[in-house]
Input
Amino acid sequence: MTAEPTPRQPRRDSLGLPLICGAVAGAALAGRWGALAVVVGAVCGAAVVTAATVLARARQRPGEIPALWSRIVMSGTLAAPAGWLLGLTGASPVVVGLVFGTVVGLLGIRPQKVILGPVLGAAVGWTLGAVWSGIPAAIVACTTVVVGRSVAALVFRSPQVRLLAEEVDADDLPFVVPLAASGSYVGTGYVKELAESLGGRYRHDAPDVGIVASLDDLAGPELDPGTVDPLVREFYEHTTRFKLDIVPEWRTWVRPGYLLYRNLVARRLGQASVPMNQREAQRGIRSRIDTISDAAGAVGVRGWIRSFADTDEPIYVGIYTTYRRDGRGYVSVGFPLPQSSFTATLTPQPRPGGGLILTSESDLDQPGHYLTYVDEKSRRLTALVIPGFAERLDVYAEGGTLRAEHAFRVFGLPFLILHYRIYRKDRAA
Output
């Protein structure tokens, strides 16, 4: 699965930032002891952080992110001046530790880290305050961040994000949908804008088309498309014949974070803005598929666009593709982002009773979730794999009616299930 990366080019002029950050951090750490100490601290800080950066880069191989220890050093470096500023308010060591522990936990994303961060931060702050009366806030902040990240690295050994490939061609990553948004907003007009960019033939709300051309494309050792219920098959191959009602089931612990993300990020992006509750979902969901075809009429891009029926506010803009590898079929769904894309590659599995499961949880090397940067000029890709994210989509027929459950987990913790009722548009009334 790992592509051969392009050799990393030396960065001769990129030591200015660590030098400045180190100097500022050193000055903040020594600020309590007068002007001379500030100068000495700045010089020492600049030297230490720059040396650490040079060493880390010298040992960094192509296709790798900087070593963990160097990232921890830089985190502590950035925390020191921020802690100094917080100290101007008169905050106690416990408060400083709590604040920076919380920040470390939130940036860790993993729910367990979010819980651990403030607890560990408060403990570090209390301990430092007990050992050293009047300890500078900059030292508390720096120590809290370094200890917090180090403990998290020891406790949670599985990586949250891993660099998969750097500056490779799209053909090297068949499991990635390399379609990005050219601007800062995706929105329901994305496929039309993409067609203008690619030069293909655009069709708005294409009739009688599915998110896959044929379920036979997904055949493999585990799936015989002939065993899939005809109604399930029809939904995948002729999605536009159906209408969807959605009932979101959010876990309580994720609601505050999602609400913040939705208002600050998703709505401004025009992408990935799932309804918060059933009342909001009752506004109605408008579903359509926009396509891009070549001169011969073959559909090359299928964009499934879901939005709120009353305002056309985007919920999801997903580009659906299928591909085959080693005798198996896969579904890859790309969600365009500014100059990047988030791809979910799913493997098909049979469900008892003729249903179909698409899941990212597999021992195979293709399924997973990938965040990919698309270079605007060269179109080469730099991709990250996100092993802690998982999803499973079950589509099945029950009493002649289609149902679906789309479940999401992060680091083993369920956080969202989308319950769908699916029925033909001609029976919507």
In short: The first strand starts at residue 162 and ends at 168. The chain has two domains: 15-155, 162-424. The two ends are 47 Å apart (CA to CA). The CA atoms of residues 226 and 366 lie 24 Å apart.
